[in-house]
Amino acid sequence: MPSKTPHTNGNEPVENGVNGTKDVEMKDDAPTSLKGGKGKKSKDGEEEMTVVVPPSKASKLSSSPGKDQEGDVVMEGEEQTAEDDGAVKVDPVTKAVSDIKNSFPLLERAVTLFDARFTLRALRSISSIRKRLTPDILARVITETYPSTSPAAKSLLVAIDREDATFSKPNTPEMEVDSESKATKSGKKEQKDILPEVDIFLGVLIQIHYLDKKDNNRGAVFSQHLTDRIHSLNRRTLDSLSARVYFYYSLFCEQMQPLPPSPASPVVSLRPALLSALRTAVLRKDVDTQSTVIVLLLRNYLSTSHINQADLLVTHTKFPDNASNNQVARYLYYLGRIRAIQLRYTEAHQHLTAATRKAPSSPCAAGFSQSATKLKLVVELLMGDIPERATFRDASMERALEPYLHLVQAVRVGLLGEFESTIKQHSEAFRRDGTYTLILRLRQNVIKTGIRMMSLSYSRISLRDICIRLKLESEESAEYIVAKAIRDGVIEASLDRERGFMKSKEVGDVYATREPGEAFHERIQACLSLHDESVKAMRFPMNQHRLELKNAQEAREREREMAKEIQDGDLDEDDLGGEFEGM
């Protein structure tokens, strides 16, 4: 039976029967002990009822203690400590060491899954690590990664002059569990072999350290040691790393004294090693090393002006079709330079145009885009074309292309005196860009352009006036140049040798000629080639077509079995779920 004694709720007694129908109004001025505590027994042995009131929003915000998901109360001191820990800056040395170590799992996944994309991800992280590289950071990574008895670790430490470094285990929170678990984990880690990919990756970091310090001699010696190690290993997961090793090896030799184009330069002695690496890469079907070494050999031959040897290399080797986009752009650039020197301007212009289109758009690749564009402008002038003005308005190239803008203006107008003064004024920039000898060939083009302007301005002009305006030596030379321009189709005119003048013909409609169709055809060809290259660059899972064929064959066999059972009467429509249509 219910008790007749009223229950307490707040400060005043309130009726609260079992079958009561009235709502009880709660107030916030109730004591805390009655709000949050559990029910207590009275003196009579009967349990008092306490109603828990949910706190308001203001009380939630003002209350400092709280509970986490596990029910532990967070103290004020602990909250202050957490805030202080968040405000503490991370040690840059520890951050650099952890960044380097984060690349090791990527290399392990590349070996396990046989996927080079994880190796490329590890190589991309070098750009952010490079600014913080020091011998102490490298020594710490080596001593915490390798066991003390590893010969590879000792050779790497000797390379950075830290052979006296002490080997220790990293102090990470994961290892602070139990003494037994720590011993088990450390024992397993010591027994685990370090992958050769990790050795070569750390070797690449040491190469970059030498390159930034400009210690080219020690860098070349260490690079030779790395190439010997790579040559002894036949692992496809090392392809991207070995290509990077040969790249830095070539850079060291280019910067050593005497510099190219001296025949005693170290780049000449590097060629046998690069040729041997190319032969090994072709036999092993190492696409990354093959494409990189071909580009390095072309750069090597061009640095010493061995054009014939570079042409023979292009003729007797086949550049890989599935090479990376950056290597394809470099290969096209060097190929365009070779063809320009060989007076094959049309092919050179095609290669250079493709190189500028394939050039990366990132700011770090602005130098390559500028070099390719400069050579392309000179080739266009040698072909008799005038480059578009929009090329010089690009913000990333406006300052670098300023000398070439003055050159284009001189060639476009056909003023020989202004052309020669431009060459004299910017000769150092042209020599630094490697386009000076090609620009000297533009003298005849300037004269042809001047003759074309005269043919458009005058219906008849004497050879003497042509000689004076173009500052030629004699009228005979003017007659020869005009005759050659007429034969090459530069101008539409006739030459009267007896009277000594040039008579221009009436200019027809340019759209009636084949020139617009040829320009349109070139653009269509460029779009088609881009489409073909994009299709070739698509990635497909290995043996996926075989799996699809197998699944299709199994599906056909199941359909035959079902049809046979239906004909025999073993199956009906209900057995098939009601979705089978009659045959």
What features would you describe in this structure?
With 583 residues, the chain is mostly helical. Among the domains are: 91-165 and 193-256, no CATH class; 458-510, Arc Repressor Mutant, subunit A (Orthogonal Bundle), CATH 1.10.10. It has 28 helices and seven strands. The strands form three sheets. Strands 5-7-6 form a three-stranded antiparallel β-sheet. It has a two-stranded antiparallel sheet with strand order 1-2. β3 (66-67) and β4 form a beta hairpin.
Number of strands: 7
Spatial strand arrangement across the major sheet? 5-7-6
The number of distinct helices, counting runs of at least 4 residues, comes to 28
Helix content: 55-70%
Straight-line distance between termini:
77 Å
